[in-house]
């Protein structure tokens, strides 16, 4: 069976116009060419699609069933061709983006919407991971882009664009002993269990670790739930707390006596210089660069 796109298009138009001649006019062909193409299609399918009685062909029951599938099939063929053209022009087969756990509450989906509008056929995969793991995913090649906090030390192989500032604050449940103090000393912080968002690799020390006694989790949702239960204090995004009324009611922002209670970080879009990026990744990077120019 050798069915081509032109045959399907002719079949669709004959069904919609009700005649070979009307379909031929829409296609800019002679009626005999359309009639011959439909006859060949019937041979290929081993089906009678039209009863040729009277002046107009009458579609058979089989033709009506096939017609329901034809429109979608033609759309899929066109999408396939467009995607193949995009791939030949440098579009990646898929784009993997990792978002640091504490940034999942931010408007990172705006970037995905932008990519979907520009490259509707692109497969986008989004992962979440602690900061250290997100960094590792970039350089092992399992992610091409990462939305993450600024790093204390930059590696020569990484490149980035600053996006925004993010404030993290020390919090505890309102029933937690630390929440009963107007100000909390550094010694009290050291002695109380901390719930820390950290790499799944136990050999990597978490960046925002202060307490001697701590529990680890790989995402801020789990950390938040444990903190809400009074299992320890932790560091969470201020924006997340401000946006969720129930967190404001259940959590207390700790006023730390010996050092600033706020941790301000830049949020960056990061990629590796060693990774060959495709069209979609470059599009997003250039869009953000242009956005920074406009904002400044």
TrEMBL record:
SUPFAM superfamilies: Periplasmic binding protein-like II, Winged helix' DNA-binding domain. Keywords: DNA-binding, Transcription, Transcription regulation. One of its GO terms (molecular function) is transcription cis-regulatory region binding. Residues 1-60 form the HTH lysR-type domain. InterPro entries: LysR_HTH_N, LysR_subst-bd, WH-like_DNA-bd_sf, WH_DNA-bd_sf. Gene3D superfamilies: 3.40.190.290, Winged helix-like DNA-binding domain superfamily/Winged helix DNA-binding domain. It holds the Pfam family LysR_substrate. Belongs to the LysR transcriptional regulatory family. This is HTH lysR-type domain-containing protein. The lineage of its organism: Bacteria, Pseudomonadati, Pseudomonadota, Gammaproteobacteria, Moraxellales.
């Amino acid at each position: 069976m050798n069915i081509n796109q032109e045959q399907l298009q002719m079949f669709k138009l004959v069904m919609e116009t009700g005649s070979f001649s009307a379909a031929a006019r829409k296609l800019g062909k002679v009626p005999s060419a359309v009639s011959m193409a439909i006859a060949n299609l019937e041979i290929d399918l081993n089906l009678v699609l039209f009863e040729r009685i009277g002046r107009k062909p009458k579609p058979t029951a089989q033709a009506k069933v096939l017609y329901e599938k034809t429109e979608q099939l033609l759309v899929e063929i066109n999408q396939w061709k467009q995607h193949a053209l995009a791939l030949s022009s440098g579009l990646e087969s898929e784009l993997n983006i990792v978002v640091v756990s504490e940034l999942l509450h931010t408007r990172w989906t705006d970037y995905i919407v932008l990519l979907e509008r520009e490259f509707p056929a692109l497969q986008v995969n989004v992962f979440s991971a602690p900061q250290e793991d997100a960094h590792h995913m970039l350089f092992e090649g399992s992610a091409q882009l990462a939305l993450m906090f600024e790093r204390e030390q930059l590696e020569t192989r990484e490149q980035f664009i600053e996006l925004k500032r993010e404030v993290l604050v020390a919090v505890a449940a309102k029933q937690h002993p630390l929440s009963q103090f107007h100000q909390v000393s550094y010694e009290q912080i050291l002695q109380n269990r901390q719930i820390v968002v950290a790499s799944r690799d136990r050999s990597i020390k978490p960046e925002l670790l202060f307490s001697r006694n701590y529990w680890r989790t790989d995402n801020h949702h789990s950390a938040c739930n444990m903190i809400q239960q009074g299992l320890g204090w932790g560091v969470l995004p201020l924006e997340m707390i401000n946006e969720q009324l129930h967190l404001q009611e259940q959590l207390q922002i700790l006023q730390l006596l010996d050092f600033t209670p706020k941790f301000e970080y830049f949020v960056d879009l990061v990629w590796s210089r060693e990774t060959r990026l495709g069209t979609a990744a470059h599009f997003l990077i250039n869009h953000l660069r242009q956005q920074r120019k406009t904002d400044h």
